[in-house]
Each structure stands twice: as C-alpha cells, then as structure tokens.
Design brief:
204 residues
Length: 204
C-alpha cells in the first residue's frame, strides 16, 4: 500500500475498491503530519537562532522520521485487517461459526485504526514542540501538520467506532471506545491549540 504512487492511491480511493478506505487515508494524513514535522526540523537544525533547541530538534527529527514510517506501515495494516472482515460478512448467516469469526475479524479491523490514533498522539507532541522550537520561516507548515494530525486522529477514530458498534463483546468494545475517545480528545486539544497559535502569529 505504501509503495503506491499518489495517483494510484487516490485513484483507488475514488473507486469502489474495498481498500484503501478511511483508515488508510487517515494513516496517510498522519504520515503527512509526521513528514512536515521532519521538514520543519530539517529547516531548524543547525541554525544559530535556535541553538538552544538543537538537542530537542535532533530528537524531533528522529521521532518524526520513525513516525512517518510507522504511519505508512499502518496503511498496510489497515488494508490487511479489512480482508478477513470482508470474508466474515460473506459467511452465510445460518453458519454456526459465523458470529465468532465475525467478532474476531471486528477486533482485528478495529485495532489498526486505534493504532493510528495512538501514533497520532506521538505526532501531536512533536507539533506542540515545534510551535515554539521550529523555525519561524516554516511555522505555517507546523500549522498544516497540526491540521493533518487532527484529521488523521479523528478520521481513524471513526474506523474504530464503526467496528466496535457491531461487536457482541460490549465490555471490550466500550473499553476500546473509551481509550480512543481519551486519546482523540487529547490530540484535538493539542492540535487545535497549536493551529491557533500559528494562525494568530500569521495574522497581519
């Protein structure tokens, strides 16, 4: 999935193909956010004006590149998770094993977007730092990273909820929903604050 060109990926996203879907698109937005964090870090590192943040910028660069790779891997994980779910829906309703197979597939399908949300929380922390520590010449890109991270997290959450909604094990589903809500609320708060700080700084 991650080796597809942008034209191929978006073309398949436009179609009725089962994958990619909202989960893969969310992971891609997460990768874009992490990449922008890396770019801002690259434009900041080694600059005398930001020497006090050099150690932090080097850490941010390493983390951003790692998170970019993780998000791209999650695009594939999300696509792989959909296949068993699709097959489970195709099992005849009178098959005594259908319910258990479907439940297991729903758990797998919900895990991938949940993992995207959790990685978004790590990306959001980089965005938060770069509002202060990143080069002012690239501050608008920090705002874009904040917007992309927010979209990635809230989008991935939708793909958690659509699967937990159908789970029979409500204790598991409710716990996953709660954990997702908690993470998303934190991410949205961080990203909205970062975006507003960048926006106010750019207002003329």
């Amino acid at each position: 999935m991650k080796n597809k060109s942008i034209v191929t990926f978006t073309g398949e996203l436009c179609s009725n193909a089962p994958v990619p879907g909202g989960g893969g698109a969310s992971a891609l937005m997460g990768a874009v956010s992490a990449s922008l964090c890396s770019m801002v870090g690259e434009l900041t590192t080694g600059k005398k004006k930001y020497a006090e943040y050099q150690t932090d910028i080097e850490r941010i660069l390493g983390d951003a590149k790692y998170l970019n790779k993780e998000m791209l891997d999650l695009m594939q994980k999300d696509a792989d998770a959909f296949e068993p779910l699709s097959k489970a829906y195709g099992i005849p309703k009178d098959d005594p094993e259908r319910e258990d197979i479907l439940e297991a597939a729903l758990v797998v399908a919900a895990q991938a977007p949940f993992d995207i949300v959790i990685k978004c929380r790590e990306v959001a922390s980089l965005v938060e730092e770069l509002v202060t520590k990143g080069s002012r010449l690239a501050i608008s890109d920090v705002g874009v990273a904040a917007a992309a991270c927010r979209a990635a997290a809230t989008g991935a959450a939708m793909n958690v909820y659509i699967n937990t909604k159908l789970m029979k094990n409500r204790e598991y589903a409710d716990k996953l929903n709660s954990d997702t809500n908690e993470a998303v609320n934190e991410i949205v708060s961080i990203c909205d604050k970062a975006y507003e700080e960048v926006y106010k700084g750019l207002e003329s």
